[in-house]
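A quick aside before the break. I want you to see a complete sequence-to-structure record at least once, exactly as it would be stored in a machine-readable document. Don't worry about memorizing anything.
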Amino acid sequence: MDDSQVPEGIDPKFACRIEIIVNSYFSIIDGKKVYTKGRTVSWVVDSEEYAIIELEKDIAQYFTWANNQKAIFWVVDSRLNRTGMLATDSQLLDLLRASQVVKLFMTVGAREEGHVVGEATNDAPNVVDKGANVAPSMVDDGTSPAANVIEEEMKAEGFEWAEVPTYGETTAGPPMAEEEEKEHFMTFGCDPHGDEPAGADEEWRYFKKVDAAVRESKAAEKNAVEVNKRKRARPIPEFDTECVHDDEAGARDDYFVPYTTHDLENPVIKEKDTFGDKEEFIQIMRTYAIKNSFETMVEHSDKTRYRARCAAENCEWRVYAKKLHGGNTFMVVNLSSLDDHTCAGSATLTGHQASTSWISRRAKDIVQEDPTLSAKKLQKRLQTQYKVELSYFKVWAGKRAAMNELHGTWEESFTMLWRFKAALQEACPGSIVEIDCKKINGQMHFSRMFVCIKACVDGFLAGCRPYLGVDSTHLTGKYNGQLAAATAIDGHNWMYLVAYGIFGKENNANWAWFMRNLKKAVGTPPGLTIHSDACKGLAYGVKKAFGHDAEHRECFRHLMANFRKKFKGEVLKYMWPCAWACTTRRHDALMEKIAADCPKAIAFLNKHHNLIWSRSKFSKECKIDYVNNNISECFNNWIKDYKDLPVDYLMDKIRQMIQEKMCTRQVIANRLEGVILPSVLHELNMKSRGLHYELQKSGPLSGEISGTTKEGKTWRYAVDLEKRECGCGQWEVSGKPCPHAIYLIGKVRQLKNEDFVHDYYSVERFKMAYQFKIAPMNGRSEWPKVDVGFEVIPPPLQRAAGRPRKRRIKASGEPGKRGPYQCKRCFQFGHIEKGCTATQAELEQELPPPRPKKGKKARKSKSEDVEASTTVVEPTLLPHSSPGMTTGRATLSPISPGVTTRRMASLSPISPGVTTRRMASLSPTSPGVTTRRMAAISPGGISRRIIIE
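That is the input. The structure line, written in tokens, reads:
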């Protein structure tokens, strides 16, 4: 070690260098979550007089952490593997005396106050008995270290635990149910109170917002302190171990070349500054030029030298850097001062300095935080931040390079799926991951994948209702396949993802394969119900896999979308009430009205929609009265921002999102008290208000509830609290007392609404659903390597040319639906330009008029049709036309040999040849530009009608 590097007061004979490799960590400081990036720091100490407390003081000059945290030092070997914790001063002195360079690894952990926090253990295996009704032992009441960490993170984001949750439509449902006898018919849309709303991100209801002014003031103080620290910070020496002593580097006496630390956003470059390699130097030099408003021109560049000047003519600014011997380190040998510029700076530079690689480095952190950021928004963001003009295509290429660096290429992503499978099954034993390939032309192409995490299945069987909403959504990336999911519902009506997967198209084979794996994962619990849309392939898959072991419902919103295409008028107003009817009597009465108004509608429903879609047909075991598959739409909306990611990253991202949901909801579950969930009790309390009924008791817990609707109709229902039945049918289907039962409960002393709610809505069931933990996984680079045995080829691309569509085209009747689409190629209504196969329309032709509103067509009698068919149309000669040129639907011409088309007419003896519409409009006899309609009646024009003999 060079004596010049030894600080004053330390004998060079006993000097020793300590290198601390600090791992990245999080801290909660002043109520804000702070992330500190790890790096390597070093300094020289006295090997004879040094202690751990002095080590902590020295490292505190570079890093800060919270009061409830402490620094933990580990001894590492030559391969930087941790061999043990540094516990005593004698152990530290032995290391310092044994070597001139001591390397340690530092982590920041929780400070233990007087006791050691042990890890929670559970001797029982992570398996749920499908027939068990008793919950296993729960975790503590929210005071565990994991719960405290979650609460600290919520506080950092500005939230605190709320003793009373924020109720709303998602958690509490409709405030009061309407009577079944009320004629609440509808002619459009769906009932806003027909289904209980379902939600995906509703955990915020159990947390209250902290005062923003107090939080912002603390954040401002924190930022001010950090800015001052950055201003006073001195360069931290780091060392390039690849740069070794060499005879040709005669000016340097030590074995190490120190790097110069630069601010990547506002670099300040000086002579003798060093960089890790040439690429790092070039990137920092580009930022240096952009920030100082000038452009550079490279005069010479090779592997060992780099020389550039200012791009402006007659400017004296120069820079020269070269590679040091024995390594990749680059050093600035000569650099002109900024004052040497004789050119005028520009407020906004052109994009010459901002190369694709430079943009990729700037975009890497941005797209990692927000992968859904478009290239257009990224372009505006970079231009505003760096005051430089950037090309959209260069920004797009830079973003793609950043995404490839973060997530890998699309071709690599399919091979990584096997490594993801191995990593998931290693972290979560018992999870089901199936990957299927298809052989095409002798090559194995990826076909489909199924993922089901063990903790999700166990929680579904233990605490959720036996209901699964199954649907798929289009992927919007390079692989335009389908993302399928099976979603359950917990007691809060929150989305609970059970399984997911990807495949090419929604056909019978893919859906049958997905449903077989789903049955393998969840089995057939009692009362299992599967809800799907009108997809025929999905219906085939459910029938093939589950048969009669599960109830199959059809989404009524999709049914109505198909029904409106066939039928109009008064019949529509009976359809939604028919789906909401909870009794067979009510359902049959409405079906009779539908049959009387439109007999063909019954045949249409029996043929094309023969699944269960009315509440009167629902099973009484499931306790879910949904007629729409809204929970699947919640999942599609939950992951819509990630559907364009590579498939391996998408599969892992969904796993991470499930893991985060399970962790947050476990904290909420451990905080809840009582028997029934607070949101359910709030819903029942809201329904109990304003009930003006009449009661005729028939027993202590039974009676007749009667009343009158606003329309003046009387109704009466029999209620039996002991059997938990009501004549309206709502209680048996939903599992929660209907307004009639609630009224009777209120008339009996010592009875509460929560005593008559099904166990699916209990706090204990909610805790059972989220008692299991999804173990964390390592990064992609740490996934186990798997030898598949063959080369995995991506599936063949089957998408149209052009940019993939990010947003789906909304169906008619959906909110936000636009008017009829008009093609820009053929100018016809009903489709768009992409995928149009019609002939390109000419510029001179007339555009079709706007689509008229469809009206009712008057039906003709048979006598009128016969009379019209026997009418002879006399041929009419056009001005300046030959006798053979006729118009009309059909003419009886004695000189016509038969049917004559436009092509045959153009090849007739009197025709000079094939005449196009464009040639006809530009002929000498034409007065000018002729439209399609003008050409039909112009001299020499060809009639568009067919001449029939």
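Two observations worth writing down. Residues 647-671 form the longest helix (25 residues). The mean pLDDT is 75. We'll return to this after the break.
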